[in-house]
Design brief:
By secondary structure, this protein is α+β, with helices and mostly antiparallel strands. Helix content is about 15%, strand content about 30%. It has helices at about 10-25, 65-75, 100-110, and strands spanning about 45-55, 90-95, 115-125, 125-130, 135, 145-155, 160-170, 185-190, 200, 205-215. A hairpin with a 4-residue loop joins β9 (about 200) and β10 (about 205-215).
Length: about 220
Amino acid sequence: MLRMDARIAPLRLTLGLAASALLAGTLPAAPQETPAPAGAGGTVYNIEIIVFRAAGALGGAETWSAEAAARSIVIAGDDSSSGSAQVGHFVAMLPSSAWQLTELESRLRASGTYVPVAHAAWSQTPSSWGTRAGFAVQRLGLNVQGLTGTVFLERGQFLHLGMSLTYAMPSPPPGLGAAPDTPFTLNESRRVRFYERSYFDHPAFGVIALVTPLQGARAPGR
């Protein structure tokens, strides 16, 4: 996981608290952590993601070049894996009629604080733990100008959803103190709890994700 520069942490916390307030009351009670079943390499999971950005700065300007440098140091070599490691398989994109976060996207849009920029869902099998083997955002239907990187689902004792994303916004909010096309980076992995929305945060943009088993999918509680 990316080590946060002390100067960046307050901004990240500010955005996280604002998003948490917006989502308050929409999350179901957290179920027990979900271990991957034995022989789950071929188990198929649905993943749904909303990428959004802040409509305006929720904090002060920072030195974004320092953040980019920190990211390059932390993730160097993370993609190495043994020959026996299993790589997840992409199964299919899910139509918008199967999305479970549409109402949440509307709430984000109506807030005036956030701007949803991409929403997609797909099915896949997990990769082995530690491989960071995932799929490029373009393949996943997250086609946003300036957004690059991968999303990965890993299976160890538990399932983890992670992402390594770079978002170079054409027009960053003025308060961020960033020039056009400044790369903002998000590199994080979280343990999966089925039917619970996960929030991946950054001062400039964020991701809300939902992972469900292909069988027994249900709408999250409200």
